[in-house]
Amino acid sequence: MTKALVTGCAGFIGSHLTQRLLKDGVSVIGIDGFLDNYDVAAKLRNLAEIGTHPAFTFHSVMLQTQRWEQWLDGVDVVYHLAALPGVRSSWGAAFSDYVSHNILVTQSLLEACLKLPKPPVIVASSSSSVYGTMEGSRTDEQTPLRPISPYGVTKASMEQICQVYVKAFGLPVTMLRYFTVYGPRQRTDMAFHRFFSQMLKGESVSIYGDGQQSRDFTFVSDAVEANLLAARHASPGDIFNIGGDREIKLIDVLNIMGQLLQITPKIQFATGSAGDSLRTCADISFAQTKLGYRPRVGLEDGLRMQLANLRAQNKG
């Protein structure tokens, strides 16, 4: 595959994926509308990290303009990462924005791809948002979807519209359910970025809930590798859990962060938010078997790299 379209290329995962593709000799058409759902300056820094590579063509535009014929010209594979994220902000009147960015845009992209020689389309989904709070042991892809937030509803609906195009037209769409991706360039509104930033300033760390909620954390380079593997090995309609090396409680993550900073974190507990999952834990056996996916970066090493990146940003 020699030419890729990456939507959301200035975002957290999208910027890392774009860099990896360019490093691998792939030409990239990148699109980002610079939604102001979090600090736009962070996205501009991500774009600067990609740089002025001769094989990178960037369009600063909203996907709703639907210039698909221009963007998809000569494309061999599509990585659709653009979305409006966030559980807490998806309630109320904002829900219509989530429908537009997460469902309607995806449907229009799939419709445009029907006019091409059926390129692989890799779509970013969300584990905790579509599964809801998980029960039992590790969660596999056959677990019923029980979203508990409006955001989760839009991601589950996005998956359904993808499956419709797979079944009706044989469009080779693959969905990746990420389990809490972290690492350098993580969104400024996400937990690890906030925690490290607060600790570096000597401030108390704010946690929603009691800190006993657990997550399966995935380092960003592992998420990027999953995209590349899916483009090569997935079948139309496949859905893969993409997780990390283990499940861990949030309070224990804070202790690891404190050890890296050689401090004892000061914690302020806040009321838990509606729509937040209490537990996520991925069964990644399907991705391991079919894609050859293996998480390479353990949590301690990943946090160390994220901290180093944040410190470098602060010095700059």
Automatic annotation (TrEMBL):
It holds the Pfam family Epimerase. It comes from the Bacteria. Residues 4-243 form the NAD-dependent epimerase/dehydratase domain. InterPro entries: Epimerase_deHydtase, NAD(P)-bd_dom_sf. Belongs to the NAD(P)-dependent epimerase/dehydratase family. This is Nucleotide sugar epimerase. It comes from Brevibacillus panacihumi W25.
